[in-house]
Amino acid sequence: MEQRLLGKVAIVTGAGQGIGQGVATRLAREGASVVIADYNAETANATAQEIAQSTGSATLAYSIDISDVTAGQIMVDAVVAKFGHIDILINNAGLSQTKPMLELTPADWDRILNVNQRGMFFVLQSVATQMIRQIPENERPTSTMADVVTIKKSETKTSDIPVRNHGKIVNLSSIAGRRGRPLATHYAASKAAVISITQSAALTLAPYNITVNAVCPGVVPTQMWKDIDADRGRLFGSQPGEAMAAFVNTIPLKRASTPEDIAGPIAFFCSADADYVTGQALNVDGGYEMD
């Protein structure tokens, strides 16, 4: 495989299993040193060891609860202390819950939003600040986006934008962020917020030539989707696997995706091939959503 990410350091949150594990493995295969950041220290360590053995890339297992908004900066400091810099962030950590909208409690809402929206944002903020700090003085822009929006378009100078890329951020949203979900209203709201935050961050970081994009997966048979299937079974009396199979049947390509299906587009966003792509939210769902 082409080593498009050789010399890069990537943080992948929620990388102990599922999509995050698949993404971390793909980035390592492309040459990146990978930080396996996960709430579960045991799975983080196991994944880090497996990736190091299978790819030869340097890895770091890091236990983090991103619902603690101070944790992101502490992680950034630890990663910089080990590797010296951060080039890529994959904001993958997230929670889901299947529960009718009228039964949601404030605790349900806060649990999902504190990770999927609030925690995700503050990890992004900490990493983006570090990426800006790493830009050589002679490559820093003379104006930021805040300056640009206050002047006439004709006065904006392309020379204010650094010539080379200084960071890649990819946030994991979901097809649930594209439309409402009566059985996962809080989850859908959190994933719609991810798309909005992606666009805001892309605008904020564009003067520094740091790109920010989102990926919206569909059905991926990870533990999260197994939990969704089980929850729908309890709500509707379906047998194990039936809810997931019914959803897969609505996908034009007629199959669920694998973590590797999601990892490929993310690796593209992290590569130089996507240096001119920012603020985008890409559906990776077999054609289920086409907006």
Fold topology:
Blueprint lengths: L8 E5 L4 H12 L3 E6 L2 H15 L3 E5 L7 H13 L4 E4 L14 H29 L10 H4 L18 E6 L12 H21 L4 E8 L5 H14 L5 H8 L9 H12 L10 E4 L7
Parallel strand pairs: 1-2, 1-4, 2-3, 4-5, 5-6, 6-7
Q: What do you see in this structure?
A:
The protein is α/β, with parallel strands linked by helices and 291 residues long. It has a single domain, classed as 3-Layer(aba) Sandwich (Rossmann fold), CATH 3.40.50.720. 44% of the residues lie in helices and 13% in strands. It is built from nine helices and seven strands; from the N terminus they run βαβαβαβααβαβαααβ. It has helices at 18-29, 41-55, 71-83, 106-134, 145-148, 185-205, 223-236, 242-249, 259-270; strands at residues 9-13, 33-38, 59-63, 88-91, 167-172, 210-217, 281-284. α6 links the parallel β5 (167-172) and β6 (210-217). The protein is globular and about 65 Å long. The two termini are 31 Å apart. The mean pLDDT is 93.
**What is the CATH-assigned architecture?**
3-Layer(aba) Sandwich
- The radius of gyration computed from the alpha-carbon positions, rounded to a whole number of angstroms, is 19 Å
Give the number of DSSP strands.
7
Discrete helix count: 9
Quick one: biggest sheet? 7 strands, parallel
Name of the level-1 CATH class: Alpha Beta
At the fourth level of CATH, the homologous superfamily is NAD(P)-binding Rossmann-like Domain
> N- to C-terminal separation?
31 Å
Low-confidence stretches are none
Name the shape in a single word. Answer: globular
Structural category is alpha/beta
Q: Strand fraction band?
A: 5-15%
Helix content: 40-55%
Quickly count the domains.
Answer: 1
Order of helices and strands: EHEHEHEHHEHEHHHE
**Overall mean pLDDT:** 93
Which strand order does the major sheet show?
3-2-1-4-5-6-7
